[in-house]
Amino acid sequence: MFRKLSDSVFASPQIGLAEIAVAREQGIGLIINNRPEGESDDQVPGPEIEAAARAAGMDYVAIPVTHAGFSQAQVDAMADALMRSDNPVLAYCRSGTRSTLLWALARAKAGDNPATIAARAATAGYDVSPVRPLIDMLAAGGD
Length: 143
Prior knowledge:
This is TIGR01244 family sulfur transferase. The protein is α/β, with parallel strands linked by helices.
């Protein structure tokens, strides 16, 4: 269920409480929720995921991303969350796409090679082409 973006970052479609235990077993230390609250009736509310994650000894952060796109604040928050975690990270949203795109932008901001970012995302089953120009700009040192 969790798709590997790098050695320490995984993306996933919406998780439920059962996936918290799976994440813990896989060594996940931080769960990043990229889904806005109330996006659909069938999603597990973020506060429930947060409580279960914390009860399992994992950190949790919410960086909600709507379909309106990505802001610099969201990219910065994702980059900060990824940098501060010493353990593997699981980011989720409805399908995992927004989490992957935000990861890609954060990694570009950190100076990773855009082609490498795109290849890792593709291996996990995600396409970063919707934000590829922004990835290229961030990797080149633009804000």
